[in-house]
Amino acid sequence: MDVIDLRNFYSQPLGVVARRLINRGIRTQWPQASGLRVLGIGYPTPYLGLFREDSERCIAFMPAAQGVLKWPTSRPTLATLVDEFSLPLPDASIDRVLLVHALEMSDDPAGLLREVWRILAPSGRMMVVIPNRRGVWTRTDKTPFGHGRPYSRSQITELLRLTWFTPSAWSEALYVPPIDGSWFLRSAGAWERVSAGISSPFAGVHIVEATKQVYRAIPARRQRTRLIPALDPVLVPTAAPRRDEAVT
Length: 248
Description:
Number of strands: 7
Helix content: 25-40%
Largest sheet: 7 strands, mixed
Distance between the termini: 90 Å
Number of helices: 7
Strand content: 15-25%
């Protein structure tokens, strides 16, 4: 989706409710980010406000195919347009990475996650907000969660392990159906409490936290191997030319 479409969705009542419910799930897993370096990828600006005040730095990267909007609107810009497969950051430089409207929109989600793995610190954590394949929100294209490729829980787990991440926490949000009626949206909190209590599988989005797999390095010094030939070398003498082969 275009960045203008995303902005317009979050300015509508349905988008305001979605933002509030997803923010609640993010805050549950990441209660604070004091002194940490936080990066959002995709269209994360509706949710980065949770960390902007107490983090060391908080920036947003938006893919070139989507476009970029100024964020925050009344302060110096903290958002920029990037190539999602070549992020302009050094290795292991970020403590927290939040992906929203990113994996399901990407042409190469595995390539994007490997780039996130590169910039994430060894003790860092990544959180992905991604549409649930079973959810009602993926059945309509009037919300951003109905665009791109939705994922089941097993598909997310396989993708994370393929790209050297380990899932560490799971939660869901958006149990309320995507209906614009104001009277219906006022009951969104009740929908969330009841559906989460009965472990309903029809949530609109998965909220998945993952840690970076850091493998033990191969030692630089290796044991020297002595090669012993199986056969002794034999010198083959060169035959002397015969007299009748001499050139006259």
